[in-house]
Specification:
The chain is mainly beta. It folds into three domains: 11-77; 97-184, Thrombin, subunit H, CATH 2.40.10; 194-267, Pdz3 Domain (Roll), CATH 2.30.42.10. The protein has helices at 171-184, 213-217, 236-244; strands at 11-15, 24-27, 29-30, 37-40, 51-54, 57-59, 61-67, 72-77, 97-104, 107-120, 123-134, 144-146, 152-159, 165-170, 194-196, 205-208, 224-228, 231-232, 252-258, 261-267. The strands form five sheets. A six-stranded antiparallel β-barrel has the order 9-10-11-14-13-12. A four-stranded antiparallel β-sheet has the order 2-1-5-6, with no helix packed on it. Strands 3-4-8-7 form a four-stranded antiparallel β-sheet.
Length: 274
């Protein structure tokens, strides 16, 4: 186990309640290679009015960008002061079962990721989250989770309900959102022009939109998605998760099943049509 960095005192960001919402807070974590911190904005909170508290000190911050889908927000201190840097993993990978440590102000606490969560209460998530079992109560949103190498593999998203189980946003989602937030202040989603049905368990293409990258490549209705890039696709939630990581202008390999034949195309996602 690599030597872990403590985060005491906690860098706590408080968000006031939005209209008809409620106030919330998040731990702020420095991201690799940038003078930015990432936080999680809970539903019902005002993302545009963060207040950073470090111990008894208040530090002014500015919002660099906020993605309402993932609820990730990137902020920067106006005085240049930053929390201790942490090394981040590039991605969790296909297997999400691992022994982890949650880094809290009181010190590291053991926890374990037990798999991917693709839907909650029958609602399909826009990106897959990690399910994490903690040895104590679920820590606040934004709390970093470190692997045995001491790298951040995710940050706490929210509690799963009763008990000590919570959900976490994987490192690759943080990197995906950070890339666009740093460039333009908002997430630019990639679009292929494929229409699938959430009613179908199988990720079968029901429609290919005209003048889309998928139409230009030759994908047809009734083709079944097998993978998008490095992400295997076995059902509609898998496809939704893979679509989240598409980057406009960056080529991606798409593997499909047409009748009994496996076929592959290289597509270049574009920005969604207005």
């Amino acid at each position: 186990m690599a030597q872990l960095i403590t985060i005491s005192p906690r860098w706590q960001v408080n968000f006031p309640a939005a209209a008809n919402g409620q106030a919330a807070d998040s731990t702020a974590v420095a991201v690799t290679g940038a003078s930015l911190m990432v936080v999680v904005v809970s539903a019902g909170a005002d993302a545009m009015s963060p207040k950073l508290q470090v111990g008894t000190r208040s530090i002014p911050v500015k919002v660099i960008g906020h993605d309402p889908v993932s609820r990730l927000e990137f902020i920067q201190t106006e005085g240049g002061e930053m929390p201790k840097a942490m090394a981040w993993a590039e991605e969790v990978g296909v297997s999400a079962s691992a022994s982890l440590q949650s880094m809290e102000a009181s010190g590291p606490n053991k926890c374990r990721s037990t798999g991917w969560v693709k839907q909650v209460g029958g609602k399909i998530l826009p990106l897959a989250l990690l399910r994490v079992n903690f040895s104590h109560a679920v820590p606040p949103p934004g709390t970093p989770l470190l692997n045995d190498a001491g790298r951040v593999v995710g940050i706490v998203f929210q509690a799963a309900g009763s008990g000590n189980t919570g959900y976490a946003i994987p490192a690759e989602a943080v990197h995906r959102v950070q890339q666009d937030i740093s460039d333009s202040g908002h997430l630019s989603r990639g679009w292929l022009g494929l229409a699938l049905s959430a009613e179908l368990q199988m990720p079968r293409v029901i429609r290919v939109l005209q003048d889309s990258p998928a139409a230009a490549a030759g994908i047809k209705p009734n083709d079944v998605l097998l993978s998008i890039g490095t992400r295997p696709v076995t059902d509609y939630p898998d496809a939704a998760n893979a679509f989240f990581y598409l980057i406009p202008g960056r080529e991606v390999r798409v593997k499909l099943l047409r009748d009994v034949e496996q076929i592959e195309y290289t597509l270049t996602p574009v920005k969604p049509r207005s």
